[in-house]
Amino acid sequence: MTRSIERRPTLAAVTESGLPASSPPSRGRKVLLSVDDDPGVSRSVARDLRRRYGAEYRIVRAESGPQALEALREMKLRGDDVAVLLADYRMPGMNGLEFLEQAMDLYPVARRVLLTAYADTDAAIQAINIVDLDHYLLKPWDPPEEKLYPVLDEQLAAWRATDHRALPEIKVIGHRWSRRTSEVREFLARNQVAYHWLPSDSGDGMRLLVAAELTTPDTPVDPALLPVVVTPDGEVLPAPTDAQVAQRVGLETRPATDFYDLIVVGAGPAGLGAAVYGASEGLRTILVESSAAGGQAGQSSRIENYLGFPDGVSGAQLTDRARRQAAKFGAEFVTTRQVDALEINGSARTVRFVDGDRLSGHAVILATGVSYRQLEAPGLSELTGRGVYYGSAMTEAPNCRDQDVYIVGGANSAGQAAVYFSRYARRVHLLVRGASLEASMSHYLVEQIAGIDRIVVHTGTEVMGASGDGHLEHLTLRVRSNDPDGGQEIREEIVPASHLFVFIGAAPRTDWLDGVVTRDPRGFVVAGPDLTVDGSAPVGWPADRVPYHLETSVPGVFVAGDARAESAKRVASAVGEGAMAVMLVHRYLEGLE
Ligand SMILES: Cc1cc2nc3c(=O)[nH]c(=O)nc-3n(C[C@H](O)[C@H](O)[C@H](O)COP(=O)(O)OP(=O)(O)OC[C@H]3O[C@@H](n4cnc5c(N)ncnc54)[C@H](O)[C@@H]3O)c2cc1C
């Protein structure tokens, strides 16, 4: 049966307080939604909201979580934007946090506010990070002028600042198993740009491709044109580069000027940390990123050990906050700009982009992190992006529903991915080469995995090959096991598989620095005391002091985070090194005066 928005009765159950009951809801309006199971409180919240915000926003109220979710789904279909979700904590059936968690899937950038009675405060605080809550408000809030409106004004200002990235109309049309399609989807998702994906062989996908005159109804589209991105104003981009997509969706790709106090290369936790501290301390700071902010941490479904987030925080949430924080202090951020050379021009430090453009500054912080090692086995490289993925590729999660998913790796990143995909997949097989997880994974994660029935850990197991017609269909595994006589049995198994996620260690992204700064044999950048010889400056060091702690073999060029030799490979230490590098940049700049 066709779903008709107008005929469905559910919105009638939700009073649209900003409109007369008979008005058809106008398309594309901005909404404030509140949900409270107590009809009296619900009405009074709506009344307070309407009084202050009714002219600009449509006020929608619901009396249960499921009812509010139904209303959100309809608003999503209509193209409405939801700015703030206000949910009561204690509600029968579905509590406020459960509601907000599901609402995030529909409106990820809507601000989330939880209303709690005094007695609920402890529980609410404990759960704050489950939904990355933006605020919790104690009831009652009288007078609203003092207790409710200032909070909402602040939330609305924050929402408006991210609003342009919440455009629902960007469409990506591509093949389900195309490597480039999954890259573009991942790029948009990691830059927090909402998009609508349409498989190129679906009716809607075909209709759009025909409308764009890229094919006719009876002809399959030329795969070389895919994916096709359609922007909100109808511009059609066949097989676009990341930079073309970035420009069209409002991401900055060009620096505003050609000289800065500080250039930070790489926008993972170390680079974001450096940008926040650099800009907040008055340095004209630019952050340059080849892909999307967040780095490896941006791919993490839940970081459990970052200070200040007792219930964990997703990499996407942490990245979004850090990026906004850096922007608030005035740091510039350009994306899809890969740096491929570092030049020393007198006291200026110059980075060169792949397209030949250059950018100079007084100091540079290298925060280029690491990337996953490729798994070497027949068939894997051909199927990368077509069922084989490096890192989490979280956009794939819904496609894993009711499937068996394979994850390779024994470290925390693989463990987190197993926990994340277990929410979607029928079964998650964690393939570990070693004899146990304990040696390589944090204890808390080993315990978490042990408590999830859907995750099966296969120790002594390696991937020997992959095959499939256009996408991954089978994996060949080699399994080592001990037999009762103390010997070892080795057998090969071929298993059906549609998804393989690989997390097998990392290599530093520093090849472009070869011959410019000192690197260790594995390519990590050596800095500070690791450069000195018996406490003295290394040969060729041009200054009359030893290198500062995070300074590389080139004065004024610093390194922070995973790219540094002997670094801790943790979010907190990367952020800390970013901040510390800025302090050392100040010291370096003082020496120049
Ligand atoms: C899935 C996963 C889960 C994790 N979970 C945890 C956890 O729970 N707790 C924890 O403490 N740690 C965790 N880690 C490790 C943590 O994410 C890293 O230690 C941290 O991200 C390192 O930060 P970084 O800024 O040094 O480097 P990265 O995060 O690697 O960021 C480097 C950035 O630089 C960019 N870049 C690289 N080269 C260039 C170039 N030439 N030009 C421009 N830009 C460039 C990259 O695109 C990238 O965005 C996890 C890692 C992964 C992959």
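^ flavin-adenine dinucleotide complex. Residues 1-27 have pLDDT under 50 and may be disordered. The chain has four domains: 10-163, 171-248, 259-371+506-592, 388-502.
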